[in-house]
Amino acid sequence: MLSDHAVSILIFAGIDVIMALSFFLPASAGQLSAGQGGFMALGAYTAAYLTVNHQMPFPLALAAGGLVGGLVGLAVGFPALRLRGLYLVLVTFGFGEMVRVLFLNLPAFGGPAGFAGIPPATTIWHVLGLLVVLAYFFTRLAGSRMGRAFAALRDDEAAAEAMGVNSTYVKLTAFAAGGVIAGLGGALYAHYTLFIDPEAFGVGRSLFVMLYAVFGGLASFWGAVAGATILSILPELLRWVKDWREILYGLLVLAMMLVRPQGLLDAALLARLSPRRERAAAHG
Amino acid sequence: MLAQQLVNGLMLGGAYALVAIGYTLIFGVLNLLHLAHGEVFMVGAYVGLALALAGFSPWVTLGGAMLAAAVLGVVIERVAFRPVRDRGSHVTPLMTTIAVGLILQHAVVKMFGAEPVAFPAPFASAAFALGPLTLSSVQLLILATSLALMGALELFLRATPLGMTIRATAENPTVAGLLGVNVSLAIVATFAIASALAGAAGVLLAWNFTGLSPFFGVKVGLKGLAIMLLGGLGNVTGAMVGGLVVGVVEVLSVAYLASSYRDAFAFAVMIVILLVRPTGLLGARLQTG
Amino acid sequence: MSGPLLTVEGLSRSFGSLVVLAGLDLTVEAGGIHAIIGPNGAGKTTFFNLVTGALDAGSGRIRFDGVDIAHLPPYRRTAMGMCRTFQNIRLFGSMTVLENVLLGLHCRTRGGLLAPLLETPFRRSPGEAAARSRAVEVLEMVGLAARADQAAVELPYGEQRRLEIARALASGPRLLLLDEPSAGMNPQETLELETLIEHVNQLGVTILLIEHKMSLVMKLSRIVTVLNFGQKIAEGPPERVQRDPRVIEAYLG
Questions:
Q1: DSSP-H helix ranges across chain A
Q2: pLDDT of chain A along its 284 residues, tens only?
Q3: In a domain, A247, yes or no
Q4: Of A160, B231, B240, C139, which has fewest CB within 10 angstroms of its CB?
Q5: Contacts of residue A91 in chain B, CB cutoff 8 Å?
């Protein structure tokens, strides 16, 4: 049996993977979001509020967290339609900050003091279960109609539109789905830590979620999985360096991004790992 | 009362503007976001702290912080930007600079500790009454320094060969290169200047708040980003005006609303601006990332 | 097989002070091959961009099969039965040859984001299976079936152009707009292209062709429109247009 400490590391790593996937989904349609922490906060606060104040069963609260994340994702998706690249990064960044400030100023959610007394509900099986569903979904998505529409938008938006892709619909779908996944991640997080405050979902969170996915590589969802797993377990492996830990962590991330700017699992590496798509992915 | 708040806001805004100018210069020239810029600002403040504690004069403190920040900026360009500029996706430099920011934060934690530390005042402050206003000499120093630095920058960009090189590169790096502009020099100079201004802002804000912490750079860095957007990406004058506006509104919102809304303003305005007028307050050229 | 399929009236578009199209009237009859020629900068590609919706219409009317489409988004126009290729090839770089064609089938298939969850690892959804067999058919038509699993961008230039045609054909167009399909092709490839265009036309697809190679235009098209400075300066059967003094002047001057 695993020790409690090991289980807790796995649960946090699993939630990080879920969050990285929530970034990856819109990113696979070319929509880079630096505000996933905001969606996570919405999911976490929604679900926690429902279980604490309305004694809602955990699975329902979890679904509600995902739903709120998705609805807000849809709302954020609209402005995103007009923005590209770094502009979109900046606006979603601002969105994440707005969510943080919102919860700081809502007394019903504890404000700056945070929201405590959340019942313990999240187990490793919830996290693993969601990950299995997501892995299955993403595996199938790549060879599906919507998955191709995502890839087409990322590759060349104008050409995709000319070929009959409704880019508005596809982008909103991608943003909303990313919001659902992040909302679920937040709900799981809240019912494991049992205490949440706005700072847990600030810019730092959003940037790290982005870092996980980019570090792993954006060519496939496996990149987000690998990146989040490695980077969230790495601090545990670096315990022996004591207070040099963060510095070493930063140096390792920097070195890795310099050596493999396309991420750990770039298209060429994926091609070698997967015989079926061997020549398809050989370029950047 | 209102006039007093306006002066306080301008003082804060001047320092914000210096940070935002750095972002906007780097974005204008390289079309890149420098997410460790807030940490350059913070390191500048700590260098200033070390100099001040060693007994140097306020001017040496300020100059030393600017110099150290400039060197740091050039090193960051070498280490985190140049190697990934033409490889990788356009988020790769975001990641390398996040890593650099993390390293800088915790390097400062190792040297100075994680707790906020007091920053000595530049000199025994005297208060002046100017009609209904009360100004301290430190406030005047901060305001005058940030305005002087902004003026010097405008002059430099408009009237010196290197300044024109930077502007040409910001306009179009490829064409500038073809026309014989030394693009590499322009990039290095941009980083040096942007970082020096951030270092100066670090000392000025440390004087203002009379303290600093290793995580001081995160908030101010974010604000600088928002101000850059407000002023229009790549628009130096826009960043100056935007900085002053955000400083004033922030002080007013603390005075008349709840202080917890302080940080929201810059971002709320930023989102509205991006939706309504993506070229920024002053209508800069629009660069698509 | 006659009557107008595409009618354009008074179509104008300018970029800033530069007028690219100035009050163009043009009718494409159903069933034929219609060529648009003209010197560089005559407004040919802008015309394509306006018809397919890549650019907002300036002023003027665009009717497709009797319906005013001037303000429809591009995907709606594609769904109505028109599709284009690009002068500078724009295949999807991260996709295989087959996937590029499957993307062309986007507006002819169903299936939302959650469809993949309803499939099993061993059985694709009926829609996806049908789409794949249709995509293979189209690839066979253009002679690229053997390349299906290669990265699209790795194909030789001429094959990339044929793949663009295949991708457009997959969307089931009644009107196919080809923007300089023979650009960069050697004589052999051009010959194969000619056969392909004729074949597609015989299947009932009306073809609107921007082309610089006059031999191709002469052989394929029944009617030629000549543009210069955003205006129509001549129109008619290729032999007549070729002798038109204004056309000769436009090309030499």
A1: 4-27, 36-53, 58-80, 85-104, 124-141, 145-155, 157-162, 167-193, 203-216, 221-237, 245-259, 267-273
A2: 678 899 999 999 999 999 999 999 999 999 999 999 999 999 999 999 999 999 999 999 999 999 999 999 999 888 778 777 777 888 888 889 889 988 988 889 998 899 999 999 999 999 999 999 999 999 999 889 999 999 999 999 999 999 999 999 999 999 999 999 999 999 999 999 999 999 999 888 999 999 999 999 999 999 999 999 999 999 999 988 888 888 999 999 999 999 988 888 887 788 777 655 444 443 43
A3: no
A4: C139
A5: 270-271, 274
As for how many domains chain A has, the answer is 1
- A98 shares contact with chain B (CB less than 8 Å): yes
Contact residues for B257 (Cβ-Cβ < 8 A; gap 6+): none
Residue A107 CB burial class (10 angstroms; 0-12, 13-18, ≥19): exposed
**Does A207 contact chain B (CB < 8 Å)?**
yes
Please tell me the pTM assigned to this model.
0.90
Q: What angle do CA B82, B85, B89 make, to 5 degrees?
A: 145
Handedness of CA A111, A114, A119, A122 (dihedral sign): positive
- Beta carbons of B94 and A204 less than 8 Å apart: no
Range of the domain at A114: 4-208
The separation between the first and the last C-alpha atoms of chain C, rounded to the nearest angstrom, is 39
Listing from the earlier edge strand, what are the strands of the sheet with C4-15?
Answer: C18-29, C4-15, C59-64, C67-68
Q: Residue B232: closest CA among chain A residues belongs to which residue?
A: A87
Please check whether residue A110 lies inside any domain of the structure: yes
Asked if A219 lies within 8 A of C86 by C-beta distance, the reply is no
* Residue A140 near residue A123 (C-beta atoms within 8 A): no
Residue A71 lies in a domain: yes
Residue A24: inside a domain? yes
Judge contact between A39 and A190, C-beta under 8 A: no
The whole-angstrom distance between residue A111's C-alpha and the CA centroid of its chain comes to 24
Substitution target in B31, B271, B273 with the highest count of A β-carbons within 10 Å is B271
Write the DSSP symbol of residue A78.
Answer: H
